[in-house]
What does this fold into?
Amino acid sequence: MGITNHAKNFAAPSTDVDGKRNLIGLSYEELTEALTTLGLEKFRAKQIWSWIYFHGATDFDKMTTLAKPARDKLKAHFTVTRPTISQDQKSDDGTRKWLLKMLDGQEVECVHIPESDRGALCVSSQVGCTLTCRFCHTGTQRLVRNLEASEIVMQVMLARDALGEWPSTRDNRLLSNIVMMGMGEPLYNYENVAKALRIIMHGEGIAISKRKITLSTSGVVPLIKRCGDELDVGLAVSLHAVTDELRDQIVPINRKYPIKELLQACRDYPGASNSRRITFEYVMLKGINDSPADAKQLVRLLRGIPAKINLIPFNPWPGAPFECSSGNTIKKFGDIVNAEGYSSPIRTPRGRDIMAACGQLKSASIRVSATERAAIDKIIAEKELAQGLTSQVV
Ligand code: SAH
Ligand code: SF4
It folds into this structure.
């Protein structure tokens, strides 16, 4: 299935409520058009944009720079409704995970990872994921649909609501960075992700700059350049294996876009430089991809690419077919990569106790246990078929 067909087949429903159009998720131009159609002056768009995205207003009555008749008109035709939070969990390490119920009842997770002087929000791009990486809990979720731009922006708005971070301030934000590393493959929902990121970056609203946004992809090669040209955000690539043979198995999109093509797309990534390096994510799987020979091959593959390597200890989930490499093995791997001049931080797992760490997100109610591996394999086979990937089970 091509990427365009994919977008159609996994389309999100509208986030409009009771026949009223939701203003969240409209581009600045669309907002201006919607307001002028209603007979409001063009300059109102600037005010309303600021109320929605700078002040975080949750209803029109709070928009006090607008006269009452204008507010009433807006209320009659539009909403600024957010999804509801159906679960709010806090980890011992301060990581916070929200389960958001969208207007059609579908749920996605969104995670805030605080650090001493900043914090990242891990944002989802799909309900579930179209792909089926073997080490990823999200990949076992049967239910998949793309999120609308509004549903992506709303994750950031809800997090700001919960963290009490309105109006948008410039310094010391708890939510300073965005990582498109939640549920889903962002480049399989490119149009909505791009629209959402443009709204999030807009200087008169949420105002998180492109330097503070990272998009992680499992390797949708045809869209990598476009992402760089149009959005110019930081790129992270989920590499995880140094041979096609292994990557075909654990990151099945590799069968469509093998390592060589993926790395060429990285070499060509617009804006990549020594001061803006591409992050290569590498999940450490015991006995699978964690040998010194793998580390040496990794360095050979990345030669000539401005790169940093992020070693991610595998985060377990019920029924997962892998174990995490030992601390010692991860350290040795990192030392080899480091000795070749690459920075290779080991990502500290955050929020494991609330299943909020990388790859642990999964919102559907389908429970997974060791005895249900067969069921998981069936789901994976079905999804791969829908993706046009040959169905091979590890
Ligand atoms: N779909 C995108 C972004 C979401 S996943 C992608 O694959 O890049 C974010 C990161 O978590 C990816 O690097 C992914 O490979 C990694 N990941 C998935 N499952 C994991 C697990 N169980 N333990 C550690 N990292 C995992
Ligand atoms: Fe999807 Fe990323 Fe998980 Fe792979 S690792 S299944 S692409 S969310």
Remarks:
- The longest helix spans residues 149-163.
- Residues 142 and 379 are 6 Å apart (CA to CA).
